[in-house]
Amino acid sequence: MQSGNSVFSRLEVKKYILKKNLKRDLPASIVVFLVALPLCLGIALASGAPLFAGIITGVIGGTVVASFSGSQLSVSGPAAGLTAIVLGAIGTLGGYQTFLLAVVLAGVIQLLLGLLKGGTIGNYFPSSVIEGMLAAIGLTLILKQLPHALGVDSDFFGDESFLQGDDRNTFSAISNAANHFGLAAIVISALSIAILLIWPKFKKLSVIPAPLMVVILGISLSLLFQNTPYALEAKHMVEIPVVNGWLEFMGLFTTPDFSQIGNGKVWVVAATIAVVASLETLLSIEAVDKIDPIKRVSPTNRELMAQGTGNIVSGLIGGMPMTSVIVRSSANVNAGGRTKMSAIFHGCWLLLSLLFIPGLINMIPLACLAAILLVTGYKLTRVALFKHMYHKGWDQFIPFVITIVAVLLTDLLKGVAVGMLFSIFYLLRTNMRNPFFYKIQEDGDKKNIRIKLAEEVSFLNKAAIQVVLTKIPKETNVIIDGSNSRYIDPDVLETIFNYKHNAYTKGIIVTLEDIKKQYTVPRLNSKSIEEINN
């Protein structure tokens, strides 16, 4: 009876949490939907995939992945970081249906990675690199959306890479936009930014989401400018496929070509997608957890399995590969989202807009959507973050800045890899400098040196210890104290024992205190893990 009451109470709690957070999640889902819609279309266009594939991937990312994911704020969908891989893979495999098979297999690989606890790799990304990645994404959003805010929409809306397909780069695109701006787009984007900044300050007005007001304003102003010399063109507006009826809608779905299961190229593409998509997802999850106001920690292995499930479903019905996407997730956080329901709702809005209101959606100017992303970018790369990282010291600040610059000039994965290299450099430098401390005491003509080893002494400390030992003067008493050490690497132990054995030739007497001949790597047993979890 108690078990039944327990289940009932858990359901009641879930219903209460859902109802309590609905007032935040529902408006946030509309914001994420408005941001995700042009991104889904733009990424599909740049990837050489059907436009429908971009939207259906967003739908699956919102409904399927969010349902299985343990992250409350992450939003999944087609990612700009995969565009080059997808474009090349479709050409290499000779057809979209064969590519869909690779997407399904990539999902299976991700499922296996999750089951094998591959998500723990996300725990090894340094905080300075993640913060740098977030700031870089914010700057990228600002730089990439400025041309759209100025009314120049030549490149696709979701491009996050520095180099453009038209032989331009991020900065030349802004320069070009400044010379070919449109008055209507500037008015729309400027007023949209003003609403986004001022509207939430009025509590009575904040019942209606500011981004929704931005969209209403954008549509109204585009209609106002329609019969003037400043009228917006079709390329300045959102563009989704117009579907007439269920039969036409069902005809848009495509299935994989399973006859190519033995094709080696398919497996290579699948493995590439699985690895890159998993890394991007883990980076995004780590970043989203950092900006979560409630500071929840997402289970990374479960996230990989959720992404794998999403990619299997996406590949089976004609969608593209997906990842957790930091831009959409950041928009979700900044819009006030609290639970995964905001991501699920956003997937539903994508589907409903495709079915019922494509004409209305196609009336939304890209300038007002750019305004939403500009404000999101500003919040991600605020000046206070730079000050905070500077005060944490050079070993944190330099990898942070390097990550920002590298992401801006390359792409997300390459930039993070460069930031990781600098973080590893500072980690090694710190480890090598701090393996021990020593105290010198004089007793007449004799010097007594006590070297107290750290709690963890790894092979990285070997060189520093050797340098100190070789500089010890003759006729000295040396005490090497390992009382604090839980682990000393075998290479370091060999160095210490060899020094003790040979030191007598210099008149040095070496005493070892609490140093074992062998140490085992400390491990958490199942009992310890259970205690931690409780």
Q: How does this structure look, described?
A:
The protein is of the alpha/beta class and 534 residues long. The protein has 21 helices and 8 strands. It has helices at residues 2-47, 51-68, 83-93, 96-115, 127-149, 170-179, 183-198, 210-224, 246-250, 264-291, 300-317, 326-334, 341-356, 358-361, 366-380, 383-391, 394-409, 412-433, 462-470, 490-502, 526-533, and strands at residues 76-77, 323-324, 436-443, 446-453, 456-457, 476-481, 487-488, 509-513. Strands 3-4-6-8 form a 4-stranded mixed β-sheet, with helices on one face. Strands 1-2 form a two-stranded antiparallel ribbon. A hairpin with a 2-residue loop joins strand 3 (436-443) and strand 4 (446-453). Helix 4 packs across helix 10 (264-291). It is elongated, with a radius of gyration of 28 Å. 44% of the residues are buried.
Q: Calculate the mean pLDDT score and round it.
A: 84
Q: Helicity range of the residues?
A: 55-70%
Oligomer: single chain
Number of beta-strand segments: 8
Strand order of the largest sheet: 3-4-6-8
The percentage of residues in β strands lies in 5-15%
Number of helices: 21
In angstroms, what is the radius of gyration? Answer: 28 Å
As residue ranges, the low-confidence spans are 526-534
How far is the first residue's CA from the last residue's CA? 25 Å
Shape verdict = elongated
Q: Which sheet architecture does the biggest sheet show?
A: 4 strands, mixed
Q: What is the H-and-E element order? A: HHEHHHHHHHHHEHHHHHHHEEEHEEHEH
Structural class: alpha/beta
